């Protein structure tokens, strides 16, 4: 059967250092009461808890319902699926509660998600499973023959472990003509027998009587216990013993050593002889009394036979009888009160413990535990605390139960583990305490994205690298742990849609190593950039990105290319120099380019071979070929110069250019070409056109010069198959070649004016070469003289 107490209005109380009465976890929570008979078998049905709490059958399991009892002893068990509350074992009321009535066992129902406590009480009802029992099989009673009718004589009581109506309710005596029996009530509610004399006794007629005393309990059917009463009739003893006081009250601290004196009772008898000799004994005593105390029959000293325990029994009521030698006796009462001392440390019972708490969770229940102290007064008042520097707090719930909670969200990256010490201290003297340590681990949540060691990376790769070359490494770290900290690298789609990133680089997803997938060419691609992503393996996955710039370093993989004069099988042109030219006279200029960059493209010029050494010189930085001294009649008319063009790379690459120089006496003198040359006018014109086109292409689009040169070579070879020689175009050269950093390319202003004299003998007449101030770098005033001279050009095979 269940009873529900109406909820009391919650009262606001300040939680101080002393928690004697704890606040309820929820205001207005009800207490459920159940009752069950003792000695029922284990698994017996008590009640349907789910129905009584107004919950669905499955809701108890969903909320993790548990039954909590004081200490570690569990008397009840809960079937979560059905909601039935069952006995866990057979319960003996006398073992659990002794003579305490009613016998109440307290328990709590703990519901999680959310946390809720419900108080419960189980009343253990007594069954009549014990019969009354006298401590002595025979009771000796001495009565003076001079006793008057109506005199009463108390008898020793029977013991019955049952309570209520199942304990001793009545006493009877066997039928006789001298006595009848009354059942009296003690002040503590116990019943005792009292024998009443109906007629005068005569020792000489009947010296003793033997009667049967029967004790009956209130069970159905009643149980009985018997003892024999031997009544010895003695001679008249005029004076009965008399105690100095009828009531002795004494206090004894618990844990007093065995053998310690408790109290001394004293009685006197005015009779003389054996009638005045007194002996002391316990009267109407229980097992608890004779186990705890002993009395000296001569001196009346009461001493301890065992150590007293306040938590077991708080007081003893002892009846002491003083008997004289004549059979008369008197009785007194000794009340022994056991004084509590602080001999029990507080106890802590852990009911729920969650060791792993996810980080970033709000206020979370870590543990539920109960505390108790069996001492009394201040010795039993307890307080509970934890360390101040931890992000946890204690909340009192019900009936000395506490809940350990997190103050807020925890951060695993800040601290991954907490060691919490719960300290329970009483207020006794001296104070006793109990400490319980628990370890709370903060489990990881994927709340940190990977972070690159650098926001951007710059990598340098020399061109002409081997495929699959390791060009660098990106690195990212994640503050999380486990799989949440495992990082995977990837290439992000390039922002430039024309960049074929998948064909240029690849990345190792595990370690961030970057590899060049193919050989890079500086002349085609000097630099490119892309983004790299780092993603963890958590749920959800978090990622970050970094910028990677790849700079291709130039390698000296291109040799210098001579634009002028044309080489490689083309008909060489002859530069005409008047014999009257002074030293420093500009003969021609070797024009060359290099497809590399930087110092790899810095060109220098050197005269490698000459028909007559010392006659001509080449300027190292711009490729200008000039006369080194005055010409004379003794100098040969034809000269062949081999010019070396070398770049500044490591290792250095080079090319050569061959020049033909013809010394003439003057530009006005007609000069016939050599018979072996046999140049054709049309062929000279064609060669000039090719040269002008090539020079203009370099100035307008440098990168396509090599391709154009190949085309010119192919065209010239096809024409050379039919006619050969060098041709001169009628009219001036186009002047669109631009000087490149002074390294040998023709200046825009460097051009010639050439006129053709129509003659049947195909003679040439050169007039006014237009020479700008090329010699400003070192020739000074000779420029005016040089510009006044003319140059003739002839072709050789």
TrEMBL record:
Entry's transmembrane regions: 689-712
Membrane topology: Single-pass membrane protein
GO MF terms, alphabetically ordered: calcium ion binding
Main localization of the protein described in the UniProt heading: membrane
Keyword line: Calcium, Cell adhesion, Glycoprotein, Membrane, Repeat, Signal, Transmembrane, Transmembrane helix
GO cellular component: plasma membrane
Subcellular location: Membrane
An example Gene Ontology biological process: nervous system development
Thylakoid among keywords: no
Region (Disordered): 778-797
Domain Cadherin residue range list: 29-134, 135-243, 244-348, 349-452, 453-562, 577-672
Pfam family, one: Cadherin_C_2
Superkingdom, taxonomy of origin: Eukaryota
Entries under Gene3D superfamilies matching the protein: Cadherins (2.60.40.60)
Protein's name in the database: Cadherin domain-containing protein
Annotated organism of origin: Callithrix jacchus
